[in-house]
Write a structure and sequence with these properties.
It is built from nine helices and 16 strands. The N terminus is likely disordered. It is α/β, with parallel strands linked by helices. The two termini are 32 Å apart.
Length: 278
């Protein structure tokens, strides 16, 4: 059965490898940034003009307040559309909203409280544009279950282990190079070995880490600022051998190294994991 799993996995990986992926998903009305855990939409409206006559003069009045309100309303509608296509764990937020009316209500409330991103723009053709944003941490708070996550440990065993190792030799995080594979970015991906065993997933970290930090970071190269911020100066570098949707596969040998790094340095429980994408 394991050999069949490996064979099917490689066939799927070969077919998918021709399709580039990015951690930023763009649409005509905004973008989803999985690297910075941010969702931003834009709305526009024409500046409303009204002509009135005062004595013998015609006066054109422009009601910017109404136009800004219309642009903000459109941005909020666009933001909800964007949020609904966010990839949570292979399932979109929209799918989760359909399955659970409470999630639907809470997501709509989150979008309703979106904050303005940047300054109001005044465009050519007498138009005004407003951008609204929500953070993925707010979305994660709604979607992340209470159960199924590792409990927070104030005194983890790895603290004693790492203290006995020189700082220059401590593994500060895990970097998985998946640039040769078509990985769909998501809010909750998994790392799996070639025998189908879970290496990194929801059981590896606490719910609070999932909400506030996010399970993984995304970057395009080791030079990206996001890399050192998440995995430090001395990460373990691992090559992905394949992918399936938002999940990444590594060799069993590398999986053992990752598990050893967790035992000694707590890199997985602290979500110090970075995926490099195309």
């Amino acid at each position: 059965m394991r050999y069949l799993f490996t064979y099917l996995f490689f066939i799927i990986g070969l077919v998918a490898s021709d399709s580039p992926r990015t951690s930023v998903v763009r649409t005509d009305y905004g973008f989803i940034d999985y690297a910075n855990r941010l969702i931003v939409s834009r709305g526009t409206a024409s500046v409303i003009s009204r002509t009135s006559t005062q004595s013998d003069l015609k006066v054109v009045e422009k009601n910017l307040k109404l136009s800004k309100g219309e642009a903000r309303s459109q941005a909020r509608e666009n933001l909800l559309d964007l949020v609904m296509i966010v990839n949570f764990d292979g399932r979109t937020v929209g799918e989760l909203m359909v399955d659970d009316p409470l999630i639907e209500s809470r997501v709509e409330t989150l979008v309703g409280s979106a904050y303005q991103q940047g300054e109001i723009e005044y465009l050519e053709g007498e138009k005004v544009a407003i951008a609204l944003a929500v953070k993925m941490s707010g979305l994660s708070e709604i979607l992340t279950d209470i159960e199924g996550y590792k409990s927070d440990n104030m005194n983890p065993a790895y603290l004693m282990t790492s203290a006995a190792i020189p700082k220059s030799q401590r593994i500060s995080g895990i970097v998985i190079d998946a640039r040769e594979h078509a990985v769909d970015p998501s809010m909750s991906p998994e790392v799996i070995d070639m025998q189908g065993n879970l290496v990194y997933g929801t059981i590896s970290y606490s719910r609070s880490k999932a909400v506030n930090r996010g399970p993984v970071g995304y970057a395009y190269s080791m030079d990206d600022r996001n890399v050192s911020q998440r995995v430090g100066a001395n990460p373990l570098f691992v090559e992905a051998v394949g992918s399936l949707d938002d999940d990444v596969y590594i060799t069993s040998m590398d999986a053992a190294k990752v598990r050893d790094a967790e035992k000694s340095f707590g890199v997985l429980s602290n979500c110090r994991v970075m995926l490099l994408l195309q």
